[in-house]
Structure formats: C-alpha cells, structure tokens
Amino acid sequence: MGATETPAAVRPGRKKKRNPFEGKGRARLARLISEAENSSDRAREIVNSVLHRTGRAHVIGVTGPPGCGKSTLIERLALQLRKEGSGGGKTVGIIAIDPSSASSGGAFMGNRVRMREASRDRGIFIRSMASRASPGGIPRAACDAIKIMDAAGADCIIIETVGAGQTQTDISRTVHTTVVVVQPESGDIIQAMKAGLMEIGDIIVVNKSDLAGADRTATSLRHMLETGHYGSWVPRVVKVTATSGKGVAELARSIEEHRRHLEASGELAQRERTMALNEVEKIIEEEMRKELARKMEKIKVQKDIESMVARKVSSHDVAKKLMMRAAGKCRKKR
Amino acid sequence: MGATETPAAVRPGRKKKRNPFEGKGRARLARLISEAENSSDRAREIVNSVLHRTGRAHVIGVTGPPGCGKSTLIERLALQLRKEGSGGGKTVGIIAIDPSSASSGGAFMGNRVRMREASRDRGIFIRSMASRASPGGIPRAACDAIKIMDAAGADCIIIETVGAGQTQTDISRTVHTTVVVVQPESGDIIQAMKAGLMEIGDIIVVNKSDLAGADRTATSLRHMLETGHYGSWVPRVVKVTATSGKGVAELARSIEEHRRHLEASGELAQRERTMALNEVEKIIEEEMRKELARKMEKIKVQKDIESMVARKVSSHDVAKKLMMRAAGKCRKKR
C-alpha cells in the first residue's frame, strides 16, 4: 500500500515502515515458513537466526466454532489494521490452522481463496497450515511461523483455529490476545462454554450481529463475564457483522486496549512466559511423537495385534510390553 | 425394559437377554469405568479380568460439528435399538466425549441431562467423559469403557465426539461403524469435508431434514460419495429429523447393514486390528505424556523461560537441552 520500501543496504537497523511482505521478502518468508514446517532441525536454525529480531509483533488468536465466520472476520480485521498505525498502516501476518484432512494429511488451503481481498493486499501475508497430529490443534510449526513473521517485521500476527475439542487452551497459550467468536442465539454459546472458550477469551465477538437476538446475546454475555472472576481485565464483548465490516474498527480498538492493558499491568511478561513454555512443550511433544512412531515401526507388533483381536491379550499388556522393550535401552530404572 | 433378569447364580455362562444395566450391574459398571478412567494401572487390571467376555458388542462412532444435533440423534438411535433384537431389545452403552473445560478440566456432564428419556431407560447406560489431553480427542479411558461395557453385555456401544480438529481419524480408528452427522445446506458440509469427516463416514446423516434444502444436500452428498472411491462399501446417506424421530429406524437399519457388510467382507478383522493398534497407541501416548509432565516438573525451566522471554535463547534450544538431559539417563545413544 503506501509503505516506503527501504533498500536493505541503507536500512539502519530495522525500520518500522518498511513493508516486509513485498517483493523478495514475501517469497523468502513463504520459503522459510515451509522449511520450518517440514523439518524441526531446520526450524531450529531459522528461529535461532532471527531470534534477535523477534518480540515486537502483537500476536492475536481468533477461535470459535466452525461456521461462525472466523475467516471473514479475520480478513476484515486485517484490512482494518492496514488502515491503522502511523505511515503505511500496520502489516499483518495471518496463520490459518486447518484441521488436517484424514486422507491427504494436508491443509485444505481454503483460506487464501476465501480471503480474496486480503490476499491482494501486499501488507498482509496469509499462510495456511495443517494442524497435523498436534494434540492441541496448533502445530509446532505455527509457533515458528509466528517468530519468522515477527522477525520479518509484522506488526500483528493473527492465528485462526477451530475452537472445539482441545484447541481452546492451546490457542490462549500461543498468543497475547485471544478473540472468541460466536453467533447470536445459536447453540454456539453453549458449545463455546462447553469447550471452555469463554474462559480463555480476552475479547468475545458476537459475529453476524445483523441477525435477530444479537443484542440479547451480547447483553447476557456481558452480564456473565462481569459477574465472573476474570482478574484485572474484564473480557470485552464486541458486536460485529464481518460481512459488512460493521464493528470491526471497534474490535481493533478492543484488541489494542487489551495490548495496552497487558503492558501496563505487567501481565505481558506472564503471558510471554506461558507462550515460551508452550513452545518448548510443543517441540518436545512433536519429538516424542516422532520417537514413538519410529519405535512402533521398528517393533513387530503384528503378532500382538492378532492376539488382541483374538481377545487373548489386552491393549494394556501389549502397551506395557512395548514400553518396557523401548525402555530396555535405559539403565535400571527410567 | 422387558428384559428378563437372570440371577447371577443360575446364569449359564453369559446369557444374551439378561439386562446388564439393571440393579447392581449398573452401579458396578459405573464404578469400574471410573476406576479405569482414574488410573491406567487399575484399567489394566479391569480390562484383563473382563477380556475373555469382550468382542460381541457393535461399536458405533457418531461425530459431526458442534450444534448438528448429535446428542438428540444418539438418544433417538439408542431408543430405537432398544426396540430391536429378539426379546427385550438391544442394550446400549453410550460414551459421550465432552471437550474438556479449560479451567475445570472435567467434563461438562451435559449429555445425561440432555438425554433425559434415554437416561430413564434401564437398558441404556450413559457415560460422559472428558477428552482431557488426548491428542485425537478420544481418551484412553474411552477404549477401556468400551471393553467394560462390551464385557458387561452391551449389544451396541455408541461413542459421541465433536468432529473438528483431529478427532475425525481418531473416532474411525476406535469404532466399527462411523456415523458422520451434518445439517442441510449449512456450512457444516464444507467444514466436515475440511475436517476429513466425509472420508471416514460409513454412514452420513443429514440431520434436521425438516429444514429446507435437505433433499438437495442428501442428493449431492450421495452423488459425491458414489463418484468417489470408497472400496466395497459406498457410504449410505440417511435423512433424519432427530427431534421427531423420523428416519432413525432407517439409520439403525443402515448401521446393521454396515455391520453385516463388515462381517461378510472380512473387513471386520481389519477394522479390529486398527482398533487394537489404536488402543495400544493411546495407552503409550498417555504414558509418554505423563512421563513428559513428570520430567518437566522435575527440571527447573524457570531460568530458561526467562531467557526465552528476553529473546536470548530459542524454544528449540531449550527443548533440545531438556530432551538431552532427560535422555541422559540412557546409555550412549537413544
């Protein structure tokens, strides 16, 4: 957009108003993220090399049930952020976590198609990523992508996840500000409560606010949140109609308010500690998972499986046997 | 209901028409499942002791996006199955996996409340279970509960999971027959395809078929499934209105057809092998997860975390250090 391109040679340190998502920077970013996704060793190299340039981006998580309009909302939010900030607008990285397809194992890649307008904006970088086997729904590589985008100079990074199952705690441990999206009067709110979404939302968006019941939904949510115990930050409830863009500016303001609250209250450091621990756990979990897969591959389980099908031996006994065999390489006790 | 209670003393082996969910049997079942849930060692004891009586129940998975009406459908299906089978109707075990709440860590326990009619039927046993930290959304304890209900004499066991994120492959590896539930014309179908749900469904239920567009949805689903490659079984599409019960008898018939197909085609043995392997993996994963938690607790990570927040060291380096320290108890190479 209006960003001034500063040649790398004359760049004094890291200039804020350079657009990192233009030209070669864009291609390089895409390549680094792919490399990090494909290999944790390479991820380590990349992250280590850019580490000193990280720590400036505001990381925002957007979650909610399928069909609540997350993608449209994120596109609108990104375009809104592009209009904000001094000179040229904020640059925005988007990481859309797609539930892995059972057969292909790859991401659906539908988000880049859905976010047509945003994908034409050179200040926005969109990346789809498969959730793979990551327990919480957010793969290790998403954390690497955050670091890489942050180092490149993204002002804001938005992570999109489907909020069902375990993903809810995972997203809040990965970002600074968690935005939970629900629809008015739908079963969404009960489902979201069930999934623990309300407990992690710093901001609750009632999307599709042109639908009947939006006011009532927002009011009851506010009541619920104010009477709950939520520390020094009472979660904001924002009514949005993502399709028309109504309420999106207010959402951006609420996100900014939350960022300031984190800084002023000292909670930012606490969140960053949680994020750091979360990253480490993700890496270890991935490695353990790979290790398990390697072990299971090597060990001949076919006979055990047949015995199990014949109800001669239980899964617990087979698991114990395998674990003891794997631990056999360790001294005495594990 | 009409089941004849045979006193345990005169029971010749294991009589089919005894209702295992009545009286003391019911309380015992609840207790055993809780014990198995709370301790994997105890689960091993219990499963080993009942193993010889397992292998008769038909295990059915029901999955779909939040709000598609799974609970109501399952209740209706269970009540339908109660009317079927010779003498006294089939007995049905239900395991409802609730997404864990972030703060409480426990299940929402909403299903027993929602399935009011089913919970009054003495031939139906309903159990809610938190998904906890299980990567695929189905906890190890659910597999134990299947075994325990099977051994007790359940004819059918229905597992309910929310179909988003990773849960999709997990459910199909846990059951004989996978039922995927969608709503007509909703974004559900695209979301379900995204989540790989269509690839795992042996039966697709278009629920809320009284809504507009149900016929069109069912027709396009059928077309899609017939033109795809699905081996010897072409997934059935069944229109259901769970609230009124319309189509539920047909669903029960389709499930029975699928069971017969599995037996006749020899695919049953293959599925049981997959289920067996899945169980073993779940147990090992849980143990590895516990082991990781124990290690992380012992190791002082506070200083590393602070270095990470200060951007002095990367998550990858900290993870590597911790893993090497943990592996340090092993000889030379792991």
Summarize the structure.
Chain A has 334 residues and is of the alpha/beta class.
Task: Tell me what you see in this structure.
The structure is a homodimer of 334-residue chains. With 334 residues, chain A is α/β, with parallel strands linked by helices. Chain A folds into 2 domains: 19-282, P-loop containing nucleotide triphosphate hydrolases (Rossmann fold, 3-Layer(aba) Sandwich); 299-327, no CATH class. Helix content of chain A is 50%, strand content 13%. The first copy, chain A, has 14 helices and 7 strands. Chain A has helices spanning 23-38, 40-50, 70-83, 110-114, 116-120, 140-152, 167-172, 188-194, 197-200, 214-227, 248-265, 267-298, 302-309, 315-327; strands spanning 58-64, 92-98, 124-130, 156-162, 177-182, 203-206, 236-239. The first copy, chain A, has a 7-stranded parallel sheet with strand order 3-2-4-1-5-6-7, sandwiched between helices. In chain A, strand 6 (203-206), helix 10 and strand 7 form a beta-alpha-beta unit. In chain A, helix 2 packs parallel to helix 6 (140-152). Mean pLDDT of chain A is 82; it is low at 1-15, 101-112 and 329-334. At the A-B interface, helix 2, helix 7, helix 8, helix 12 and helix 13 of A face helix 2, helix 7, helix 8, helix 9 and helix 12 of B.
